[in-house]
Amino acid sequence: MDKGRFRVPAGVRDWTIALGVTALLLGSGVSGEHPDTDPDLLGHALLAAGGLALAARRRAPLVVLAVTALCAVGYEAAGFDVLAVSYLVAVYGAVRAGHRAVTVAVSVTLPAVLLLTALIFHEGPVGEALAQARHVLEIAWLIAAFAAGEAVRQAERRADEAERTREETARRRADEERLHIARELHDSLTHQISIIKVQSEVAVHVARRRGESVPQALLAIQEAGREATRELRATLEALRDDDTAPPRGLDHIPELVERAGRTGLETTLTIEGQRSDVPAAVGRTAYRIVQEALTNTARHASATTASVRIDYRADSLAVQVDDDGEATPRKAPTPGLGLLGMRERVTALGGRLRAEARGERGFTVRAELPVERAS
User: Fold this and answer.
1) Which residues fall within 8 angstroms of residue 317, CB to CB, at 6 or more apart?
2) How much is the pLDDT for 322?
């Protein structure tokens, strides 16, 4: 069963705790001894404020720590002898967030402030004032809250480290498996395909030197051998392209376009929007999309022109490659492994890919890749 499906959102949990602590504080304030004067209303307001402030303990733990401490001092001054439960919860949250030094400093200062407040505002013997200050903030409960926060913080840190270790191990194993497959393909297929390619080319060459007609089947074998060699070389390059090598990204796309132009394909590159840094994975995927699209255009489209467009947007990167090849809406090319690989790369980043014939003639490949900006 997927437990994450039934997980209560953090905001709901925080508000539930805040409302529960508020009810506990107000209940203790009503049932306990408190003055029947105007400060009574102020004391209840401070009790409620201290509890409700806990709703923000994840977003601003130090602010909540300060607010709950001031509320504890305030309702003690108003004559309420109520344990500062909201401050204890705030201590737990601040320590869990990693603010140990500040929490210790505030927690050491607060008992002294509570004691001074009791001496100033409490009418009666000094012993009763000391008892009231001790009741508002029990040292044992304070130490327990601090220890609980530190224990949870350490557990979460160990869980994060374990998760990172698992991801690194899985990535390393995937890289090792990919290199193993590349070696196997190289050892088992490259030699055999090379033999087929060389033998077919020799046979064609000999037939032409003798003035004989070259069978179409032999020409097909020759072309298939060349194509298989190119595809295998590209596959091995992709398999060996682990992230330890210098990554190919957006900065290398002009080189791709220039290289495609040397093959006789008239290519243009257009960059729109305000150029900004994008994650390495996004840049790598954009490079592969342009590479694969231009390669397919040069090999299969019988096109004379191709255009590459890179559009930088606020939250995404759009990459589009158009050509004027033979593809039409009625005669769309059959999707191959290259298109499948592009779609898998884009989907892995949470993006969208559109590859289809455009207008009356030509083919378009358009990818929209989401980009997370640092806030």
Assistant:
1) 278, 282, 286, 310, 311, 368, 369, 371
2) 92
